[in-house]
Predict the structure.
Amino acid sequence: MSERTAAPAGQADGRTDDQADRRADRRAERRAERQAEEGERRADPRRRNNRAWLLVLPVVVSVAFTAVIPLMTVVNFSVQDIFSPGDRLFVGLEWFRSVSRDPEVRAAFVRTLLFSAQVLLLEIPLGVLLAVSMPRRGVWVSVTLVLVALPLLIPWNVVGTIWQIFARPDIGLGGWAVNNVLGLEFNYTLDATDAWITVLAMDVWHWTPLVALLAYAGLRSIPDPYFQAAQIDGASAWATFRHIQLPRLRGVLTIAILLRFMDSFMIYTEPFVVTGGGPGNATSFLSILLSKIAVGQFDLGPAGAFSLLYFLAVQIVCYVFFTVLTRTGR
Amino acid sequence: MGDRRLPWKRTVLWLYGITLLLPLLWMFGMSIRPNQDILGSFSLIPQRVTFDNYVTFFTNSVWYSSYLNSIIYTSMNAVMSLVVALPAAYAFSRFRFAGDKHLFFWLLTNRMAPPAVFLLPFFQIYQAVGLFDTHLGVAIAHMLFNVPLAVWILEGFMSGIPREIDETAAIDGYSLPRFFVTIFLPMIRSAIGVTLFFCFMFSWVELLIARTITSVDAKPIAATMTRTVSAAGVDWGLLAAAGVLTIVPGAIVIWFVRNYIAKGFSLGRV
Amino acid sequence: MLPGLEWMVWTGPTAAVFIGLGLLLCGMAVWAKISPPVARRGFLRIETDRGDRLYIGLISAAVVLAGWIAVTDLSMWLALACAFLVALTIGLWG
């Protein structure tokens, strides 16, 4: 503000006064910029060097080939009705209109969101419970780590195959047990609810370990004296968890939630193997529907518009993810 | 703390262990039974043990060649991603440059983007440039999500190495490339191993893109597994055997990366 | 670079959009050269610099357009105006 009074004043004319004000504002802004930059340098020891671009160039080129060019092509697809490369018609935003109003697409969107929400609600508490139960030291640490991590390293289509077999009422232990031991009618190839439950159970089986491992990494960073102090105070297990462990888990759990959301939002392979999107449309999530339109029917236009809308949704979540990551990192 | 673990913790672990292993063991059990037994009557323990399914897998060229295809393109992809990502990760961890933050974010969006979005253009591009149905084609396509992954993981590891080392080496007269190869790379051995592993793994598990841009010569094992339905129905025993065999590569190296799994999956942020 | 670009099925409008985006990026780069961007906090409550606000603005504009086309039959020019307004608001005060 002192900048304003220091500005060359004295012009009688209001307009030049205004201009001077604006110039002074800009000068103040630039000074703030310089200060901010200095502060930044103190907080961030990395050297400023634009030649680092040379080191990044290979990545930029390779990802441009695999991401930018395809994305441009998708944009081109989305505004045309294409019969063949030579025979096509510009239709403007028509595909966006029809895709965004297609009840099937909307249903798949809601279904995917619902699935992601259920996945988070089940996997986060289960994963934390598991992490708290894992030993902090001793010979069992490595064994439990390896066992817990096992499902994460199984190819996704094999996870599908495992559950495809396991949940079948005729040849699978799980499906057989539900039918004959619990006495419930259960057949995921015929019943929509059963199919949904199977896919959900499979996802929980597959990805809870990720939450557990992240939470475990967070728990291990808590120094032992904290626990000793809690023990001396006679704190219950719940109190220890609530007041010592949970607060320390905020960072890793945010990462876990966002990762699980992103990955469940684009889930494809596992439900494709188990149910193929069925019965009916019961488990056809966005990716499954999209690849059906794209590869199955080869509808370039609608698939392009669909892809872009899908991509937009992912971009938004991704930006939130990035903002959270870079801020918790500091 | 010692041995004062509460019994409920042990209960949770045991319960989890059982739910974890049951489906896996069940699939293994399927793979060592003849098909008549699988469909004939339900039994918990296999009545007759046979390795026919595995023999079929290794003698039928459709199966073993697609297994080899997967191994070839995932290995190529892991090496290519690593080579491209190493200098970039170093740049991100050591320098500030115009647009670095935005570039880093752009890489992340490619890791997070649903592969389904890129299906059609990939199909078109790879046919146009003659990479359709080749190992190199799949390896390049998988760089879409593996290069960003590698950059993020490596950057996480490299940021943990003090910058003073770079400066000391510079004072000692090392040029950047020489320093990078002779001093820096040996220091981040474990990071390189972990990155290779995760690139290998994410390429190994990917089905959608690999299936779309291949037909015969480079067809991945995952695609072969989804096409086991014949006139006689699904060959469950063979499918289970293939499943068991595709778990093997991951299961072999899991011990070596056990302490880094969380780091790899969280893009190097834990 | 690539043998033939017919498969990319370019059209005038999409080419114009991408050239526009490219110019915008170049412009931002030049602007950053002249006066380096400053991070500050606006009504979005997170620290953003110019580039961030441009990105958020573009994404929000896209959301406005997508939402518009999904629910109303009103003219898309009106939607474009709204989207532009949103992007501008975020760019200036976000």
